[in-house]
Amino acid sequence: MFGYHGKFLQVDLGTGEIKVLELKADDLKKFIGGSSLAAMLMYDRIKPGQSPLSPDTPLVFATGPFTGTRVPMVSRLAICGISPLTGIWGESTTGGTFPFKLKASGFDGIFITGKADRPVYLYLNNGKAEIRDASSLWGIDTYEVQKKLKDELQDAGVSVACIGPAGEKMVPYACVMNDKGRAAGRCGLGALMGSKKLKAVVAAGNLKTELANKEKMDELTKQARNTVISHYMNPIYRELGTLVYMELGMALGDVPAKYFTKSVFPAEKIGGKALKETYNATKDACYGCPMMCARVVKNFNGIDEVHGPEYETAAAFGPLCMNYDLNSIVMANHLCNAYGLDTMSAGVSIAYAMHLYENGILTKDRAGMEIEWGNGDLIVRLVEMIVNRQGIGELLGQGVRRMAEELKADPEEAAHVKGLELPMHDARAFQGQALCYATGPRGACHLKGSHYRFDLGSMAVPELGIAPSDRLKSEGKAEVSAIVQNYNEVFDSLLLCKFATLSATQISEMLSNITGWEYTPTDLNTAGERSINIKRAISNKLGVSRKDDRMPRICIQALTEGSTEGKSPDMGLMLKEYYDYRKWDWDTGKPSRQKLVELSLEQAAIDLWPSS
Amino acid sequence: MFGYHGKFLQVDLGTGEIKVLELKADDLKKFIGGSSLAAMLMYDRIKPGQSPLSPDTPLVFATGPFTGTRVPMVSRLAICGISPLTGIWGESTTGGTFPFKLKASGFDGIFITGKADRPVYLYLNNGKAEIRDASSLWGIDTYEVQKKLKDELQDAGVSVACIGPAGEKMVPYACVMNDKGRAAGRCGLGALMGSKKLKAVVAAGNLKTELANKEKMDELTKQARNTVISHYMNPIYRELGTLVYMELGMALGDVPAKYFTKSVFPAEKIGGKALKETYNATKDACYGCPMMCARVVKNFNGIDEVHGPEYETAAAFGPLCMNYDLNSIVMANHLCNAYGLDTMSAGVSIAYAMHLYENGILTKDRAGMEIEWGNGDLIVRLVEMIVNRQGIGELLGQGVRRMAEELKADPEEAAHVKGLELPMHDARAFQGQALCYATGPRGACHLKGSHYRFDLGSMAVPELGIAPSDRLKSEGKAEVSAIVQNYNEVFDSLLLCKFATLSATQISEMLSNITGWEYTPTDLNTAGERSINIKRAISNKLGVSRKDDRMPRICIQALTEGSTEGKSPDMGLMLKEYYDYRKWDWDTGKPSRQKLVELSLEQAAIDLWPSS
């Protein structure tokens, strides 16, 4: 007996065909759910040279076995595909109410291919699904789409995931928005959605999630709730949101400033306390979350309600651009939310433009304007131009890799890994972070590779035998980085918020009692490793090799200030150790045949090593 | 071969006799050094009914095998005796330069008994020792004593540990001061020193510390230095001192306010940032420490230079007294330093007076004044009155246990364990902290029982198989509490600063290569356990039983505000588990005979269990 069915909706937007995809128990057991299951489902469809915006590229929405249960912090969704920004495996997760509602609509996920001939939205309700016309929604922003759909459907209880103008215009880092300010931000999956003319997915319903062992789950859920409430970070995030990290991170040299060339900046001007006190910001939460890390600002410059900004956003539009005008950060964030644009790639691209402008590589003539550091109004204006693909905004919207190519700038100064812009945790402050960025399945990713949280002690996995490491050293980082990545893969498979401080033991017990299959902490690690490797195999098919596992020099060269002064991660050392630990092939950057077979990824073993 | 000699100076201040005490290698190996070795040395001298202020009560200064080496953060000293405040085992550690200088003077420690017939000081210099007249120093403050002795000896390189007027007047919680603002604060060992008419110990010399394996130690020392510098807390403490915890702790409900009845208070008014910005406070360090957590304020209200305050001090004179006048906190701290008074016991006693006054138990008539909450000037005045044993200051100087007795107040509202006032980490914020306080060898102690640091992830001992726990739960705390206490015992035996984030593996390797004896992380834990048990045996001789392992109700009853709202530790549950884990006897509160024998504490086994 098991309670997790893995019932996916399969939709071909080209033909209009809708059917239910029943998954094999063995696949569910091995891939669990979420982004891992999405990778398994997509694997066969991805051919070398596959274009992200080709109609046959899949777009997958996937919940997991935890979604819909009463376990805290599980209303999360993975959205996966081939990234229009990076051209390789792409994924992003989001919270809010939509993930819970999608499950309650009767589906564990949606597998979408094809391209509609006119704007459409998908309407899911208690096991039924329809493709509906969205012509009247095309061109309007994400807040308005959500409102309009709720009004039209005369149901305030529905939840909507949608794209804004940025996704429609296929800006390569357009995102998917839901429940007002929640975002599946990274990898440009909003552009992928836009390429299919899919404006929104609407979920409605009240179907219950079955559990293999309800009684035991009641007990484990109660314990889990106590655990997350008891953790010391809980009241801190509740009080000040993720922006609380601004001041702490700055002291550690972990907040990059002036496009990765500085690490000293008046953090308190734009930190969690400043947001709270300046705007009387209040807290908000994803469905069923006792932590409430999200922020809401009412009556902001004449706008009824804006959301965020989160730490990553404020760091990217703030210190990275040498901008401490909090007002402009909140506004740029709101525009990104409304237009559906990834704040992180936007902030890094704008900061890069400022850096290139200062160095004379981006000229006033080419830019059509002065692009000086720290100009908050300019940042807001550039966000608008990126969304509208207007003037220099067209180039900035392509991300830093293509900006460097187009402007013939030093590629070592383009702050990305595999095309994905660097997050706002400086790789010099936690050297393991550099390794995680270089090897992350979607490129530079702080969520899969949260080595910094592990070294800070705010994430711990004693069951897997790893301990916090010296943050300013490069030796011995491979095992921790790999296990941290594996473990985060599991979170994105279940799905579970990264801030849920549940132990591997608690998670494996709950997964066992939800599904009816036995899992141990070691099984979780293996499932995570399997997920990393199938995603790697997809990206290998799309051209990723070892030379792509790298960090741009500007993000790792030693600074002359701050708490990381004079320190630089040793990429060669870490990567060698990592490849050894992962059993990846040093020549090609592919998982070894042996490793793929060991993880029961037989098809990938055949595809990647045809002659063996 | 071994490099750690354990050469103690034995001084009888009554007879003036001075000799060298050579210790047995087996004792050194088992007790390591510091407070553990001091307990072993004192053990036979302590009889039931022993009065702390009796001339034959020993006063021990002890360094350890790490002192004098180039390992970072090791210039620390343990001062031990029977506490004039609590009447049981008493100890306190201090940093600065004095510990290093004591070792360089040729002695690992000093074992002092007797009482001089006039004020004296001890002068140690390159293996020689003298008792010298200190009549001209009696009555002057600790800053002045240090300056005068350096001037008289015409040697700015000497280091001085001394008492101030509070110690001379035997205020029960008088402390020992050295190197300007460094304090061996707790347990009233300054009063014990005062009872012996010992005004100061002066250390001079340049003798080197031998190492069993110098080459290996060079390598391990370099690694250790990298480890402590790389830890994420290093730049935070360097930048803002220990006061940086004020805001973080307040968010967690860990900073007690209004005499343990509140946990919400405007922390930022008196936090590390406020200190830095208000007074342009600069950093200072103990000898050889790369962290530099100490603070110095120049030109404070006409005083050239004042030190601190540390977090514990600012919390006690601040939120606990509902006082956010930072100026008064800095001033009260400075007076305590100059007069030689423990800031923690002083702050808790003053806050208790405010609480009793509000409740009509301490009347205006008895107090001779109004004692209202939050009056900074009053706090400064009360510190002066405590030191001078003047008016109500005489009673406040006795500590909260005797205040409750004298005023016939509810003993459950006297915030102490075994007579030692509670530290400034709220037992409701980290429930394991309550267990550590209840069972700590010197009473309520946040340094031996730093469960909060363990749960916060800023202290980790993966080698000993323990993991951070849910802070708001009481289940399963015994093992972590016991191992945290054991491990901190080792730090106080080596001696090593509690902020040194070295792993148990690093510590045991260094100890092995300093002494020439092999230690593993498990050996360290056993040595710590031995130390805990011999100290417990001493206190058992002095009357401690299980009923003393308790927390006053006011410090654990659930609050109606803040992040611990409604939560209260379950003392019965935790103590039972702790006794089981420690193999202590539930009826008597003594270590079981079996446990004492297992730890090779045969004499204690005979003394505590004579009929067995």
Structure, explained:
The structure is a homodimer of 612-residue chains. The first copy, chain A, is of the alpha+beta class and 612 residues long. Chain A has three domains: 7-204, Aldehyde Ferredoxin Oxidoreductase,  A, domain 1, CATH 3.60.9.10; 241-409, Aldehyde Ferredoxin Oxidoreductase Protein, subunit A, domain 2, CATH 1.10.569.10; 430-585, Aldehyde Ferredoxin Oxidoreductase Protein, subunit A, domain 3. The first copy, chain A, is 40% helix and 13% strand. In chain A, the strands form four sheets. Chain A has a six-stranded mixed beta sheet with strand order 2-1-6-3-4-5. The first copy, chain A, has a six-stranded mixed beta sheet with strand order 8-7-12-9-10-11. Chain A starts with 6 loop residues before the first strand and ends with a helix. In chain A, 64% of the residues are buried. The mean pLDDT of chain A is 96. Chains A and B meet through α7 and α8 of A and α7 and α8 of B.
